[in-house]
Amino acid sequence: MAWRNWLAYLEGYLILTISGDDPEGFLNLALAQGISLWDITRSRSGSLQAKMPAREYRALRSLARQSRCRVRIVDKRGWPFFSRRLRGRQVLLLGSLFFLLAIYLLSTFIWVVDVRPENGPLRRVTPDQVLAAARAEGLKPGARKSALDTRTLEYAMERRLPQVAWVGIRFHGTRAEITVVEKAAPPGEEAVDRPASIIAAKDGVIKDILVINGEGRVKAGDTVRQGEILISGLILPPRPEKKPGEAAAPEQPLPPPRLVRARGIVRARVWYEGEKEINRRQVQEVPTGRQQTALIVQTPGRRYILKGPQQPSYTSYRQENKVVALPSWRNFTLPVELIITSYYEVQVRYRQLSYEEAVSTAGRQILAELKEKLPPGASITGQKVVPLTKPEDEIVRVRAWVETEEDIGQVVPLSGKQ
Question: Do the beta carbons of residue 76 and residue 54 sit within 8 Å?
Fold first, then answer.
């Protein structure tokens, strides 16, 4: 029924009143000749009201004479009559189109950015810090939604905010919502005055150590393992020195050890290691310049192709989808999306890398992966790539090292032997 109403609106239809001696006879004659009538109702005065296609109205004149009835048009509805009314109101039409276009264009931008903590209020970061990190990555009021990749933004913000464990970004119309999950604070970290020691967070060779508070347990050049104490929060009292020739004095009880919160900077040389494999037979996709575009309307459970092919005619192609969602109002979002799918034809070519090219490519890739794992503040002091396979092998494997200089100190509450 809904489809019939839309078709009637596009073709144009009339609302009629039928009065006279025999309105029922008029209906019977009209139906016998195949004239479409629907929504037929009777009024208190005995006349009938019905709807019919505008193109069939001329056929009613002879029927009205035969049944001695009078047919009067009450209203004209549908797109043909509406478009005629707009012909004399071009300014109104242009204004409406401009308004709709402006609403659509404004809905493609982000105008509000909110921060929502996942588990209670934020403690290790502030909403302003989260918004600053988002702004540095391009997520800010006025940014175009189509230019933002949420997955890339989430990873970039996690790197900028080491205090958070997870960042999620969702778009609700013109509003971007950033969900933040903080890392669990180590026991006692929030108590800044609680006694604690600084231990090595990873293996390394000590480069410099600056003790601000506490007792240093290592020196420059020492090799340390993860978990080893670097600066202890347990300060032992010094033993009295005995001067030469001086008689031994009776032993005095030593004052008890002092417990402090260790503070300091311990920079060390740290090495990161990884391996990478690469096939010397590389597959390349070269665009030919030909493309096809499909316009698709996506509703829950159904897809309607308005324009373009259902499947491209290319043997090899690259597909890109652009989703245009209708603007939402408050918390209501229409479950309809417009999908613009572009198919780009490509030619598949194969290239055989030399042994040196494969080693260089694998080395660049593994070095880039290792550098992605470096903590903030780490400076690279050296890097090395060593091949592990022979020149005649089809699969090339390399091992890489990245040497950094970084602060490896980690504060832990004072417990156990120090």
Answer: yes
